[in-house]
Structure formats: C-alpha cells, structure tokens
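Comment on the following before class.
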Amino acid sequence: MHRKGNPIRRFRLTKIVATLGPVSSSPERIRALFEAGVDVFRFNFSHGQQSDHGARMAIIRALEQETGRPICVMADLQGPKLRIGKFAAGPIDLAPDMPFRLDLSTAAGDVHRVGLPHPEIFQALTPGNELLLDDGRVRLLVTACGGDFAETVVVAGTRLSDRKGVNVPGRVLPLSPLTAKDRDDLNFALDIGVDWVALSFVQRPEDVAEARRLIAGRAAMLSKLEKPSAIEHLDRIIEMSDGIMVARGDLGVEMPAEDVPSLQKRIVRESRIAGKPVIVATQMLESMIASPTPTRAEASDVATAVYDGTDAVMLSAETASGAYPIEAVSMMDRIARRVEHDPLYRTIIEAQHPEPQRTPADAITAAARQVAHTLSAAAIVTYTTSGSTTLRAARERPEVPILCLTSKVETARRLELAFGVHAEHTSDITSFSEMVQKACRIAVDDGIALPGQRLVITAGVPFGTPGNTNVLRIVWIER
C-alpha cells in the first residue's frame, strides 16, 4: 500500500475521529476531511441507510488506494432507543407536582398520560425511582408502578413532545445492547469491512461478551461508556473490549454533570494502563455546527482530553451535518498540536506513566521509549501481526511517532486509532535486517525521519509470534 513521494504525515500524536453524514459524503469532502487531519471515519448507524454507509466505504477505500495510507473506519451501532409515544394534540405543558402516567397503551397521549412501549422499563422500576425524558429536560418521580404502568409526578420540566427519549438512572434494564436493527447493521458493517465496531448501551460485561461472539474477530470491538451502570464494571469491561469511548453527553444525562470530568479522567487513565485505545467523544466543538470558530470553553475541553492522554478525540454533528466540517477538523488538529508542544503536557503524561508489567515485552517497550527520549530518536518502529506490540508501545505514550510495520492491512487500519501510531501495510518480513532496511526507507519516504537520524526498533523474534517483543535495536539512517 505504501506510496513513495506521497506521504500523509500527521504532526500530532493524538488522533481525530470524524463522523460522516449528509454534508460529508462526497469524494471531494471525504478527501478534504482526510487531508485536514481525520485519522478515523465514523459511520453512525443511528442515521442514514445502509446504502449510504456502503457508498462512503467505497469512497474511503478508493482514497486509501490512491494515497497509500491505511484509513480506519468505525461502525457505531445505534443500540436500544427508549422513547415515549405520540400525543394526540401536539406537545403538552407540564408543571411541578403535576401527576403523569406512563403505560403500555398504544393510544395517543394527552396531558394526563402517554404510552411507553418498553415493558423492560416497567419491570425495572420501583417507587422512588426517577425517569428522565428529553435528555433530562423533563424529570419524573415514580410514585407507584406495575408491570405495565408507572404513576409519576413532575419534578422538573415545562414541555413534552412526541417520541422523546427516556433514561432510567440507577437501574440496569433487562435489555440486550443489540436490537434486531443493530444485528442487521452489524452484519452489513462487517461485510463491507469496517475496522472497529462501537457498541452502544453497554450496561455490564455480559453485553460486551454478546457482541464479541457476533463480531467473531472480524473487526475490533469498542465499548461506549454512556450508562452509569457500566462504570460499576469498568475494569472488566475495559479488559473484555479492544477499545473504549467516553460518551460524555449520554453519561451526563443519567449522572450529575459535575461527576463527568473526573470520570473522564479515570476512564482514560484505566484504558491507558490496560493498553486499550480510548476516545473522548460528544459535544467537543459543538458550536462549530453553526459557527466557523469554537467557544473558548470548547477549545479548553478538547485540550483537557489531550492533556489527559487520550488516544483520540471525536467530532459528531460538527462533521456529519454542520456548516463547517473542515474547519472543525482543522481546529481540533491545531488544538492537539498546540497542547502536545506544551512542556506541561509531557510533564503530565510522564507523571501518569503506568508501571510496566514484569514481562520481557513490557520491559523492552518501556526501554524503547526511554532510549528514544535519551537519544532524540526520530521514531520508535514496531513490527506486528496482531497489533499487540504496537499497542504496547502506544501505552507508553512516547514523545515521537510509532512507525508500525505490518503485513496485515486489517491490523494497519485498526491501529490508526491508537496514540502516535503511523501504520504501514507492507509485505511480510522474514529477517531482522530486512525489517531494519524497510523501516529506514519508509521512515524517510513518509517524512517521519531524515537521513542521519536514529530509529529505535522493537520486534519479536522469531517473526509471526503475536506479542513476543524481545528485541530492541538502535539504527542510524544512512545519509
């Protein structure tokens, strides 16, 4: 796949995920987003048709062939959508302490009641539980309930309209995260060759296990942390997933907003310790949906995620349906680059450095980071089949790029999500000397290193043994 003389080199280590949608589906717009800095394209299966996503994939794979750069694609499944029914005469007005009933009836609602076609919610409720409607804009307190109804009083909110979403904070609902639509979308996404599948509505480790069985290794699996119940099983969910997404917007509906920032830091830290890529998502540059510049608070929010050491930051409606998709990517790129050049950034990253495990592979990878720093090397080079060697290097958060060489294009694409990784799909390597020669050539061709600079190379010998990192070598690039 490598194309000499046409490198796409990112001058930052933090990755950018961008969502494709109505305003960003043409070949010209997808190319512009890629050139502006997108590392991972997200297909949001909550919107659009499968044919739309299939057409975008064809464009991306053609761009990949043209540029010679592996491009990562993520399918984000919708998950269960819990919504009330419709009202007979349009939106209703609410007042504090007003009684309001939810039930399984399909009849149109009024000021006294509305349908809630989700028996699983009624099964989970007890008096004293709170229900949040319309992303928390309406709060109801359950006073009595049964298998097909809930009597509530209004705690907050002034207006309620058709089909608004429902959240049940503090309760685990007896629901699979994969609806019939999700299973169909998952099969389609795997058939067109997505690299990551993001699972919505994760409540417990069993949800992750169910998705992994269905994916069966055909893509990497990322768990979206958007339900507070998932945080109770955080360690196990991280362990069972290939990657993690911090879905701050959804988390902030079911838990106090003031808890989300510290939870974001905890999730990023725990994911990094486990060596799993982590994305910070939702509402990052939201004002850029309609404005060519973000608020200063939004710029600070993106910067905070980078200071935390996240692998990637994500744009949603900003690039899917906003008026300034290219500007949003460029802004995120500039913020990340600015933070990574701040001396305080490296101080923070080093202070949070995880202890290496007592294995030869971890010892060598940790040493590679230190050697690269001491010798001012241009890059760390890894050779990997499964991706484990490169992910171990990314866990170290080195201050130089990680040039990943792999004979599997699927591995190269997946690793584009990971911190600092510049992946190259190359023919199989049979000897260490061949790897050194190839690494030096690609590093120069892709603008990662110059003749006369050094590379720190890690690999597993014999080749082809996943996770068997046991060699470290320092090489000069000949002038």
Q: What stands out?
A: The radius of gyration is 24 Å. The chain is about 35% helix and 20% strand. Residues 128 and 193 are 46 Å apart (CA to CA).
